[in-house]
Structure prediction request, 205 residues.
Amino acid sequence: MKKTVKFLSLVIIMVLFSCSSEPIIESETSLQSVASKAAANKSKVVVLEKPGGFPNGEFLVIDGASSTIHRNKNGITVNFNTNGLIPGNAYTMWFVVFNVPGTPPGPPTQSSYGAGHIVGGSGNGNFSGHLNTGPGFDKPLTAEIHVVIRSHGQAVPGMIPDQIHTFEGGCNPDLTFPEGPGRIWPDSDEVGYCANVQLAIHPEK
Prediction:
C-alpha cells in the first residue's frame, strides 16, 4: 500500500511538472523579449563642446562624458554625465526635439526643460530628466533628440531658482549669445553670462 501511494505521488509530481514547464519557458521567452526591446530603445552618445565658439571652431568630444537615452512609447528619459563645467556655475539641461524622421533637421518641433543644478568643486555634472509625449513630440521611439547643457554663469543668491529652472534665468542680455541647435559657445563664470555650452545628439532611429 505504501509503495502504491509513493508511486501515485511520483506520478502526480511528474504530471504537474510537465504541465508547468511550457508556461515557464514562455515566461522566460517573454522576459527575454522585453529585455531585448529595452536594450534596443537605449543608446549612449558622446558629449560635444566648441571651445572656439559658434560659428568658428569645430566640435570636440569631451573625454569621459556621455548622454544615455531611454525611449518608450510614452516619452524619453535622459541621463547626462559630463565634466569640465565651472564650479559654482548654475546649469540647466534642455531637450530639443526633431519629430519628423527621415527629413533633414529643420526647426525643432519642441524645446523642453529637463533638469538643472549648481555644479560643485569637481566640475562634474550629472543631469537626469524625462520628457512625456505631447504636441510636437509624438514619436519618442524614432525622433532625433538634441540634449543641451546651458550655462547661467555664477550662481547668484536670490536668483538661483530661476537660474536652474528657466532658460533665461540670471541672464544679462549683453552677455547672452544667440541660441539654436548646434550653437555652442565657451563657458564663463561671469555673473549674467548665458550660453549653450555642451551638446549631445541622439539621432533618429
Summary: DSSP finds two helices and eight strands in the chain. Residues 2-22 have pLDDT under 50 and may be disordered.
